[in-house]
Amino acid sequence: MLRASLRQVSAALKEGQVTPTELCQRCLSLIKSTKLLNAYITVAEETALKQAEESEKRYRRGQPLGILDGIPIAVKDNFNTAGIETTCASNMLKGYIPPYNATVVQKLQDQGAVLLGKTNLDEFAMGSGSTDGVFGPVRNPWSYSRQYKEKSVPKSDSEREEFKWVITGGSSGGSAAAVSSFTCFAALGSDTGGSTRNPAAHCGVVGLKPTYGLISRHGLIPLVNSMDVPGILTRCVDDAAVVLGSLAGHDPKDSTTIQDVFQPFELPSLPDVSKLCIGIPKEYNAPGLSSEILSVWSKAADLFKNAGAKVIEVSLPHTRYSIVCYHVLCTAEVASNMARFDGLEYGHRSDVNKSTESMYAATRREGFNDVVRGRILSGNYFLLKQNYENYFVKAQKVRRLIANDFVKVFGSGVDILLTPTTLKDAVPYMEFIKEDNRTRSTQDDILTQAANMAGLPAINVPTALSERGLPVGLQFIGRSFQEKQLLTVAKWFEKQVKFPMIQLEEVKGA
Amino acid sequence: MWCRQARGSVPRRLAAGGGRALAGPSQGAVSGELLRHLEHLALVDFRDREGVERLRGAIRFADRLREVNTDGVEPMDSVLEDRCLYLREDDVTEGNCTKELLNNAREKVEEYFVAPPGILCCPECDLQLVSHNSLFSVR
Predict the structure, then answer these.
(1) Would you call A226 and B65 a contact, using CB atoms and an 8 Å cutoff?
(2) Coarse DSSP helix, strand, coil percentages of chain A, rounded to the nearest 5 percent
(3) Quick check: B62 contacting A, CB < 8 Å?
(4) Do A438 and B16 count as a contact with CB atoms less than 8 A apart?
(5) How far is B53 from chain A (nearest CA, A)?
(6) B117 touches chain A (CB under 8 A)
(7) Helix spans in chain B (H)
(8) Half-sphere exposure of residue A162, counting CA atoms within 13 Å on the CB side?
(9) How far is B113 from chain A (nearest CA, A)?
(10) B3, B31, B47, B82: which to substitute to probe chain A, counting the most A Cβ within 10 Å?
(11) Signal peptide span per the entry (chain A) (predicted)?
């Protein structure tokens, strides 16, 4: 039952084949037995069961709120949830209980969804491995799959089992792991440089980054205000469309949401791609791209060709500067956004009491990890009066060039772009931590970042298993606010590739 | 598996070029004075050599932007620049939640957040900045 899709289980609830409380209890129990994955920071057991009971009453009366009523979901721990601790995996917000719900959380609750808990992430969503939070790294459920174990070199030393577990990718690794390990039917992540699509690719789930301005950011603790979006993680494309339908739309509390009325849609059951033009950007064959993924990408292009679609090579010439541009703009906006954490009104507060400034400085030194502090300092450097033009404004100009690349390509008749999501499959944790956070982010965000720069919708669709038995995904990038077309193509592709279900074995240490 | 054979439908790898910044001094050698200034602005310290090296690395990386010709290009603030964003009426629609807002603060007195005395530690100045307990009130 837990392996079913969101729509399937919703139908089962409606027909009384299972009750919301039963479903909730099973998910909670699975969360306990997969605790080693460290996907959840907070499990809101009491409130979840209460919500499930309310949902059950509605079903008994024959009045469910909608398709999401009674469905267990998880939310990344950088979304504010009233009454439930929200930490951003940082010491700065340990113990912080928000007095309000983020709009997206409120919307899910209004539809009757059951919030199981808050998922783990990189501290303040800065990172591409979900390894840099104060609650420890998240383990990829595929580390414990039969598919991965079968491909592993047989070990003589039982201790090596611990060393071989692979990362989820990040920064929404907890959400991706939660969906991938069947503990929930959908999860919210956030996407600033690829933070939803990257872990989706590594964990073999669907990761949707909507167009900037479609879904409210109110209550999402901001990283880069001009690029952040809430992300959606599910096990299939149809489910992503359902969740999108309940979240999208103007929010008066977020003035960066567009005012156009959003029409929720259902995807065609037999999508047709023969009239489409698929673009293959040549710059996405980036240095470091594994030959495996290159071949998967190539075969995918062939699939479209054989179905009658026009498949052409295109160029996005400024792609390689996207990551540099992101580096400057991100650190600059982070420097500004992190200024609110001073210990006075909420969050951690240092005992240092000599003066206001020294208290602020000590609080921030104690509350932030090296990654966050490093970005704040870099950001302030780029924003110095003598550097402003040459770094910050320059990066904004390069941003326009990157966005224009996409405009040109979409304007020339291309409907959807097809690219890899990651350079290779998930690496073992012990290998990942050998490089520092910035280096890793630079390497891992390279294929996903440009879509955030231009504000375009993008989705990762799990495509195949690598030679190591780990998921590999491909990315589709669409035109602004054309999520229906994007998801239709993604659904068609999903049906073609028939990505295998994870054969999850017992999640335990050596 | 469906994807056994690749057939070259994807582009060949481009040369891994473009890694060198243009000749010329980097914008801002990182002097000790600059470091102190940054620490003061950010209210975050570098802590050790590693922090400083990280900053130097970040600047070197950012310098690659100079390779791009941006003559005549306008900076882009937001991808929604072509739209009129929603501005609500300047009316009070919610509030009166003093208790909830104070809940998360560690130090408070009645309806005030409490901060340590004084703003600046200024040992080099002749002027001594003396002030009383600073109180920040909540509306």
Answers:
(1) no
(2) 45, 15, 40
(3) yes
(4) no
(5) 10
(6) yes
(7) 32-42, 49-62, 98-103
(8) 6
(9) 7
(10) B3
(11) none
Q: Are B28 and A380 in contact (CB under 8 A)?
A: no
The pairing of beta strand A114-119 with beta strand A206-209: unpaired
DSSP collapsed to 3 states, A223-251: CCCCCCEEEEEECCHHHHHHHHHHHECCE
Structure tokens at A417: 């772009």
Question: What are the residues facing A229 on neighbouring strands?
Answer: A191
Q: Identify the CA nearest to A188 among candidates A205, A170, A202, A176.
A: A176
CB atoms within 10 A of CB A403: 19
Whose tokens are 């808050």? That residue is A118
The answer to whether the beta carbons of residues A476 and A441 sit under 8 Å apart is no
Closest residue to A295, CB basis, from B6, B101, B117: B6
Which of B44, B62, B116 lies closest to A328 in CB terms? B62
Residue with tokens 């620490």: B39
Residue in the structure block whose two tokens are 């102190």: B36
Determine whether the interchain pair A438/B57 forms a contact, defined as Cβ–Cβ distance below 8 Å: yes
- pLDDT tens sequence across A376-404: 999 999 999 999 999 999 999 999 999 99
Chain-centroid distance, C-alpha A247: 15
The set of residues, in sequence order, having a beta carbon less than 8 Å from that of A304 and lying 6+ positions away, is A273, A276, A278, A311, A418
Question: pLDDT of A355-381, one tens digit each?
Answer: 988 899 999 999 999 999 999 999 999
Summarised one tens digit per residue, pLDDT across range A69-117 is 999 999 999 999 999 999 999 999 999 999 999 999 999 999 999 999 9
Q: Measured in whole angstroms, how far is the alpha carbon of residue B125 from the centre of its chain?
A: 29
- In angstroms, the Cα distances linking A118 to A39, A45, A370, A395, B48 are 9, 11, 23, 34, 34
Cα end-to-end distance, chain B, whole Å? 64
Cα–chain center distance at A137: 16
Task: Using CA atoms of A460, A2, A245, A66 in order, give the dihedral in degrees to the nearest 10.
Answer: 180
- Contact list in A for residue B70 (CB cut-off 8 A) is 394, 397-398, 401
| CB contact B10 to A (< 8 Å) | yes
Tokens 């980054």 belong to which residue? A209
Q: Where are the beta strands (DSSP E) in A156-284?
A: 186-191, 206-209, 229-234, 277-281
User: Residues A41-57: pLDDT tens digits?
Assistant: 999 999 999 999 999 99
Q: Cβ of B53 under 8 Å from any chain A Cβ? A: no
Q: Which residues of A are catalytic?
A: 76, 171, 195
Q: Enumerate residues 6+ apart whose C-beta is below 8 A from B81.
A: none
**Looking at residue B122, what is its pLDDT?**
46
CB contact under 8 A, A357 and B117: no
Buried b (16+ CB within 10 A) or exposed e, A103-112: bbbbbbbebb
Q: State which residue of chain B sits closest to A327, comparing Cα positions.
A: B62
CB-CB under 8 Å, B14 with A344: no
